């Protein structure tokens, strides 16, 4: 083997200090001469790549810090090595040469390996022996290649540094060499294969740098070393037998890499800087999506047991430069983790070599798995572990960081600890898990001053909560749950029973067919995808049992609409279900269930009523328990999310399988039809607006069977259901909510990753997490009497008035006609065709609404005797939402009405009054009345209230005319029960009373601008009666109209008598959230069309006129609001024009980024159809300026109202209150309404006492204007200057005194 290969191998081993850290035992023949092929016209190429040459008897060291002069010397040596490698590659890629001259590497006595080169006068190249010559007839001199020309240029740049190199070399040679105490080679090394000269050279080099060159991954067996040597000799013989030139595809990439390294070294020599440093992970530079895709693919391969496939894939990505670029350390760590499980320390060493070859640093995970492997290996030397720890320290990492920051699976943590105990028997990790405290001004006192905090307990014993945990765990382990439908009460007919049996038989048959088809398709995939570097679906189809995939497909058929489903939606649903089951199985495999149970059982002590009081928040207590029970796997698994495209591709594959495989007999319902098999699903195309989209539609025969069967069971994914135990508290951005089901803390657009990146960097999320935990800890139960009434109407004929959709039997009949009928005129055919289209649309809408109500009511009915919880997450602005999608308190009037607090509290002296006021609020009457006026009105209609409670469907039914009829009826029942109790003040009420903000968006604007007029209009200022901003704007618009009418404007005269609160309300409400004049005009146009008396020919002109007046009226009433809104809009426009998306921090420290970018199209290819995705969040695209500027004001205000809600939630929790919210509508018990109102006002004042706009200005300036302002007059320079001036010029504020909010009764009411 050529000594040139030694240099190449050394280069692969390490880039930090190349020859200091490697000592390679190499066998070579004929006194180190290069083996040259005989009888051919080319130099034999050494075909083995550096990865294949990695010997198991290799020890590479861990350098300590040295002075910069030595580093410069080593970098100079690296130049020599790289040049020699390039010369060798030149000889490899040149096929036809006349005289093949190969330069030798001479091992000098100084211990430094030096490469003979033209620029080194001390080294004389030798000719190849005669026997080694190869001559090509007619061959011409090869032309210098591009990379050789580059090398020549680099040489010229290096000449001026020759004296530096020679001086440093002289200084080094004068230093005495350290005495070696032993060889770094392993037991069993075949010494005979090493030449005497090379052996002495290597020994001298090792003796000189004994401590610095100790290897980490020295293998423990001589068998491995001998085997590697034998393989190397065998490969050498094989190459002699086949002397043909073999040009590798990877060679140009290696040359390119060498050139790049050479250039980097030159720059380092030029600057005479610190020792060579490896670049950080290039994850932020390269495409995050590619990294995510590679990670999920490798993890899928490993989970499915395809270790060799994963290994080959990583090697194929690593070898070529263009495929290597997206790789980061975490991707290499996946394979390091695999080899650690197997105790293969030599394999880990090879991956470390690949890491350094890729210019990456090992991170905590890399060293963690290396230590784990050492712990698993009983023969591992303590010296090896010490070397690894020394290298960690060299890289600025500590073992304590490994235990506190790394994610462990199974027994990984115990193995790392075992390795540590080998070298330090008394070692115990010092975990620094910060769980309490927050430096944010808004909540600093909340976390530091807890003497008065009274955290509420749940009305359950500890044993009850532990039992509930077991039930919830079993549901999530199953991933699905089957419940009874509320339609089950209908009597079963003979035809219904026959159809149900027929459907059951068909499903059993389809299951067998799909199982067989899936297995066959997997075999085909496994055999056809042979190229290692290509990503494919095969690993994703091996994550679950085949039966699990089939069950998911069968379930999707049962839930499919008769009108069909978009292929994209259906595929996404299927892919997500596979991912959810995969995550649950991962947690099983990682053995976290036992630990989760132990920690949760201890956690219930904080919540249960029969345990001691704790002064900790749920997150703090959970983190403390995790710290105490740190052994075993980490609960936060660190799984990689799948890309949206991967989910879609897997889903479309499953859809294609169903469409091609599932069939039904054509005569199954009617024997008169042909007895032939027909597909039960059809792939077709339909137009949505101007876009053609793929649709999957069930065959009418299948639809008819399903409708006539009227099945009584519904199957849902487990995460659709409320939880039967309190949610796991959010303790980090990746762990919380459900026990096993993966849940994202922040809801984002499919595929957007910038939000997660910001969250991972954020260190101030504790208040946000604690508020989410408080909302999730509220226990609920079902209002059973009201639910029964709603179900009875649902099973009758529904009611549009009461928001209960009618059954599909009430849908309009589909008109049937023959387009070829000669008796029909063209206009009649067109009319019938329009009717058919409208009937189909109406049927589809009715089906959607009916199924939504069916799911909602069926889930509620299933939970009727249960206590349950809603885990919470948030959107990118911080607005909170319950995780279960169908049934929650953010739903419609029906859903809110059947939900009550599980914990009851006595009404107290004012509770009954609050119930009555709440009822009047729900009716929508008396909005301009004072609270006392509303209470008096409620007392005057007590007879109607009692009648509604006693005879809801047969009485005077006045409640049906309320704005929120079902909640009003529920409130009537609660009031009736309270007044009929012996002592209403002691009546235990479970009913939630709401306090709603008065145009909350404008309230925040008025507070930001300290606008007195605006603050008065939205009830920030104390008033005798509530101020109605909508009526105020309508009055202002009427004054403008009267003035214009007097001056003779026709449209102003036409509008006389038609301007009302209702006409302007929607526009006023939404203008604060960014509605444009165009959108406002459409809103007003819709309201005008609803007025029968208004002349329709003037609608267009009138809406144009009125929207202008509404905006003018708002500008006059809310001067500060408009200035702030304009400042936010213009700031976002200029930021976006500069190429950035708008980011900011909420006052609670939550990072927010607007993901809107220019849309690009991505095609997901599949067998059934290519799906065109619109990607509007790609960080490589420029920001969408229009969306950025229009969205910033409303999103900023939303982030403020979410901050106010979170502050209120935290302080209500510390006061022992039950609190939930629907954005700017806060709920609590009637007993605690006054306390909640006090907290709500205090926290609003607390929030707006912060310099919010100044802090925003400071943040934006630091982020977007922190660079030096370049001189020039170009457009970009002017925009940069303008942006800086605009951001620095914060809008002026008025004189409104924020403290007055605390006295305002109608701020929230």
UniProtKB/TrEMBL annotation:
Record's compositionally biased regions (Basic and acidic residues): 143-156, 247-259
SMART domains named in the record: RPOL_N
Stretches the record annotates as Disordered: 109-210, 228-290, 809-829
Naturally occurring in which organism (per UniProt): Sparus aurata (Gilthead sea bream)
Renumbered ranges of PPR repeats: 328-362
Entry similarity comment: Belongs to the phage and mitochondrial RNA polymerase family.
Composition bias type Polar residues, residue spans: 181-198, 261-276
Annotated catalysed reactions: RNA(n) + a ribonucleoside 5'-triphosphate = RNA(n+1) + diphosphate
Name used for this protein in its record: DNA-directed RNA polymerase
Purpose of the protein: DNA-dependent RNA polymerase catalyzes the transcription of mitochondrial DNA into RNA using the four ribonucleoside triphosphates as substrates. Component of the mitochondrial transcription initiation complex, composed at least of TFB2M, TFAM and POLRMT that is required for basal transcription of mitochondrial DNA. In this complex, TFAM recruits POLRMT to a specific promoter whereas TFB2M induces structural changes in POLRMT to enable promoter opening and trapping of the DNA non-template strand. Has DNA primase activity. DNA-dependent RNA polymerase catalyzes the transcription of DNA into RNA using the four ribonucleoside triphosphates as substrates.
Annotated ranges, domain DNA-directed RNA polymerase N-terminal: 470-777
GO cellular component terms, A-Z: mitochondrial DNA-directed RNA polymerase complex
Keywords, sorted A to Z: DNA-directed RNA polymerase, Mitochondrion, Nucleotidyltransferase, Transcription, Transferase, Transit peptide
Quaternary structure, from the entry: Homodimer. Component of the mitochondrial transcription initiation complex, composed at least of TFB2M, TFAM and POLRMT. In this complex TFAM recruits POLRMT to the promoter whereas TFB2M induces structural changes in POLRMT to enable promoter opening and trapping of the DNA non-template strand. Upon metabolic stress, forms a complex composed of FOXO3, SIRT3 and mitochondrial RNA polymerase POLRMT; the complex is recruited to mtDNA in a SIRT3-dependent manner. Also forms a complex composed of FOXO3, SIRT3, TFAM and POLRMT.
GO biological process: mitochondrial transcription
EC nos: 2.7.7.6
Pfam families per the UniProt record, alphabetical: RNA_pol (PF00940), RPOL_N (PF14700)
InterPro entries with a match to the protein in the record: DNA-dir_Rpol_C_phage-type (IPR046950), DNA-dir_Rpol_phage-type (IPR002092), DNA/RNA_pol_sf (IPR043502), PPR_rpt (IPR002885), RNA_POL_N_sf (IPR037159), RPOL_N (IPR029262), TPR-like_helical_dom_sf (IPR011990)
Keyword DNA damage among record annotations: no
Transcription keyword on record: yes
Primary residence: mitochondrion
Annotated localization: Mitochondrion
Regions of compositional bias (Basic residues) in chain numbering: 200-210
Molecular-function GO term, any one: DNA-directed RNA polymerase activity
Top-level taxon of origin: Eukaryota
């Amino acid at each position: 083997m050529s000594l040139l290969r030694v240099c190449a191998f050394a280069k692969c081993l390490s880039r930090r200090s190349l020859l200091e850290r490697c000592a390679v035992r190499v066998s070579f023949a004929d006194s180190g001469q290069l083996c040259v092929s005989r009888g051919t016209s080319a130099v034999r190429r050494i075909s083995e790549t550096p990865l294949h040459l990695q010997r198991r008897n290799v020890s590479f060291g861990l350098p300590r810090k040295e002075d910069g002069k030595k580093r410069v010397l080593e970098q100079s040596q690296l130049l020599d090595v790289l040049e020699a490698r390039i010369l060798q590659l030149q000889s490899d890629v040149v096929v036809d040469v006349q005289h093949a001259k190969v330069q030798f590497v001479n091992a000098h006595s100084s211990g430094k390996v030096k490469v003979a080169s033209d620029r080194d006068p001390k080294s004389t190249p030798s000719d190849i022996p005669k026997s080694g010559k190869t001559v090509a007839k007619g061959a011409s001199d090869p032309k210098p290649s591009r990379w050789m020309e580059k090398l020549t240029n680099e040489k010229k740049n290096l000449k001026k540094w020759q004296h530096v190199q020679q001086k440093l070399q002289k200084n080094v040679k004068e230093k005495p060499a350290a005495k070696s105490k032993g060889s770094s080679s392993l037991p069993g090394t075949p010494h005979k294969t090493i030449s005497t000269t090379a052996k002495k050279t290597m020994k001298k080099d090792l003796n000189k740098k004994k401590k610095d060159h100790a290897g980490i991954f020295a293998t423990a067996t001589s068998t491995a070393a001998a085997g590697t040597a034998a393989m190397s000799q065998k490969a050498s013989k094989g190459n002699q037998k086949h002397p043909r030139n073999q040009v590798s595809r990877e060679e140009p990439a290696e040359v390119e890499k060498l050139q790049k390294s050479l250039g980097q070294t030159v720059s380092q020599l030029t600057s005479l800087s610190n020792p060579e440093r490896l670049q950080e992970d290039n994850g932020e530079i390269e495409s995050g999506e590619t990294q995510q895709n590679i990670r999920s693919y490798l993890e899928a391969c490993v989970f499915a047991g395809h270790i060799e496939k994963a290994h080959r894939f990583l090697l194929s990505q690593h070898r070529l430069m263009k495929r290597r670029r997206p790789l980061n350390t975490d991707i290499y760590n996946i394979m390091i983790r695999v080899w650690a499980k197997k105790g293969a320390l030599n394999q880990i060493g090879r991956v470390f070599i690949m890491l350094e070859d890729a210019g990456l640093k090992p991170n905590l995970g890399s060293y963690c798995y290396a230590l784990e492997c050492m712990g698993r290996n009983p023969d591992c030397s303590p010296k090896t572990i010490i070397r690894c720890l020394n290298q960690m320290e060299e890289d600025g990492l500590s073992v304590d960081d490994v235990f506190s920051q790394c994610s462990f699976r199974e027994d990984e943590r115990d193995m790392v600890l075992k390795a540590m105990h080998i070298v330090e028997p008394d070692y115990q990790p010092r975990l620094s898990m910060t769980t309490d405290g927050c430096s944010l001004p808004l909540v600093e006192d909340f976390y530091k001053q807890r003497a008065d905090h009274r955290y509420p307990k749940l009305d359950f014993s500890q044993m009850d909560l532990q039992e509930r945990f077991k039930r919830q765990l079993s549901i999530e382990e199953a991933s699905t749950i089957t419940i009874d439908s509320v339609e089950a009460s209908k009597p079963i007919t003979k035809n219904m029973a026959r159809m149900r049996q027929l459907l059951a038989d068909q499903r059993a048959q389809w299951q067998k067919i799909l199982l067989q088809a899936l297995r066959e398709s997997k075999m085909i995939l496994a055999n056809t995808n042979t190229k290692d570097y290509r990503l494919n679906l095969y690993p994703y189809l091996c994550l679950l049992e085949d039966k699990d995939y089939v069950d998911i497909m069968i379930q999707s058929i049962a839930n499919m609409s008769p009108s069909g489903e978009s292929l994209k939606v259906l595929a996404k649903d299927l892919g997500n279900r596979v991912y959810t089951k995969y995550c649950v199985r991962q947690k099983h495999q990682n053995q976290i269930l036992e630990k989760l149970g132990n920690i949760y059982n201890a956690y219930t002590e904080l919540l249960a009523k029969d345990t001691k009081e704790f002064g900790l928040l749920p997150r703090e207590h959970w983190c403390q328990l995790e710290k105490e029970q740190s052994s075993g796997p980490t609960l936060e698994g660190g799984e990689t999310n799948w890309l949206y495209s991967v989910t879609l591709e897997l889903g479309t594959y499953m859809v294609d399988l169903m469409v091609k495989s599932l069939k039904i007999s054509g005569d199954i319902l009617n024997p008169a039809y042909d007895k032939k098999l027909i597909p039960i699903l059809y792939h077709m195309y339909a137009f949505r607006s101007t876009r053609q989209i793929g649709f999957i539609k069930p065959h009418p025969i299948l639809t008819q069977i399903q409708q006539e069967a009227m099945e009584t069971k519904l199957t849902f994914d487990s995460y659709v259901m409320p939880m039967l135990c309190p949610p796991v508290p959010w303790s980090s951005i990746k762990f919380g909510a459900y026990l096993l089901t993966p849940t994202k803390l922040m809801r984002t657009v499919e595929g957007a990753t910038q939000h997660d990146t910001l969250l991972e960097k954020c260190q101030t999320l504790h208040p946000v997490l604690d508020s989410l935990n408080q909302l999730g800890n509220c226990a609920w139960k079902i209002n059973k009497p009201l639910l029964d009434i709603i179900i009875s109407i649902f099973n009758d004929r529904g009611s549009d008035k009461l928001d209960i959709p009618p059954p599909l039997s009430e849908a309009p009949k589909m008109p049937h006609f023959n387009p070829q009928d000669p008796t029909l005129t063209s206009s009649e055919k067109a009319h019938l065709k329009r009717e058919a289209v409208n009937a189909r649309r109406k049927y589809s809408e009715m089906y959607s609404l009916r199924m939504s109500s069916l799911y909602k009511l069926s889930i509620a009915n299933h939970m009727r005797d249960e206590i349950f919880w809603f885990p919470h997450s948030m959107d990118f602005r911080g607005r909170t939402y319950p995780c279960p999608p169908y049934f929650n308190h953010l739903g419609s009037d029906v859903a809110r009405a059947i939900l009550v607090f599980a914990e009851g509290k006595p009404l107290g002296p004012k509770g009954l009054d609050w119930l009555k006021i709440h009822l009047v609020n729900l009716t929508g009457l008396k909005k301009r009345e004072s609270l006392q006026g509303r209470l008096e009105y409620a007392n005057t209609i007590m007879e109607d209230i009692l009648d509604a409670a006693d005879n809801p469907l047969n009485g005077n039914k006045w409640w049906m005319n309320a704005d929120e009829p079902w909640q009003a009826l529920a409130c009537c029942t609660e009031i009736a029960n309270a007044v009929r109790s012996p002592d209403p003040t002691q009546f235990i009420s479970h009913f939630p009373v709401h306090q709603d903000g008065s145009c909350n968006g404008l309230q925040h604007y008025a507070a930001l601008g300290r606008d007195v007029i605006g603050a008065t209009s939205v009830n920030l200022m104390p008033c005798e009666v509530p101020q109605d901003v909508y009526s105020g704007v309508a009055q202002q618009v009427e004054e403008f109209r009267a003035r214009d009418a007097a001056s003779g404007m026709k449209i102003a005269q036409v509008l006389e008598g038609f301007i009302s609160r209702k006409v302007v309300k929607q526009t006023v409400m939404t203008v604060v959230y960014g509605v444009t004049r165009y959108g406002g005009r459409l809103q007003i146009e819709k309201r005008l069309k609803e007025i029968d008396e208004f002349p329709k020919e003037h609608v267009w002109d009138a809406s144009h006129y009125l929207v202008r007046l509404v905006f003018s009226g708002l500008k006059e009433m809310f001067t500060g609001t408009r200035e702030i809104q304009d400042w936010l809009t213009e700031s976002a426009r200029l930021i976006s024009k500069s190429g950035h998306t708008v980011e900011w921090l909420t006052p609670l420290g939550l990072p927010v980024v607007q993901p809107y970018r220019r849309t690009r199209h991505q095609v997901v290819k599949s067998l059934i159809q290519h799906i065109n995705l619109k990607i509007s969040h790609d960080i490589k695209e420029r920001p969408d300026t229009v969306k950025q500027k229009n969205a910033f004001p409303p999103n900023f205000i939303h982030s403020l109202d979410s901050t106010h809600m979170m502050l209120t939630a935290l302080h209500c929790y510390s006061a022992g209150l039950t609190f939930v919210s629907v954005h700017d509508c806060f709920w609590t018990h009637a007993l605690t309404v006054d306390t909640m109102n006090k907290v709500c006002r205090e926290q609003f004042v607390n929030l707006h006492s912060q310099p919010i706009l100044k802090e925003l200005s400071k943040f934006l300036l630091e982020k977007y204007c922190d660079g030096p302002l370049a001189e020039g007059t170009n457009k970009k320079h002017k925009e940069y200057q303008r942006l800086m001036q605009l951001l620095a010029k914060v809008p002026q504020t008025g004189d409104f005194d924020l403290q007055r909010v605390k006295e305002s009764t109608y701020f929230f009411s």
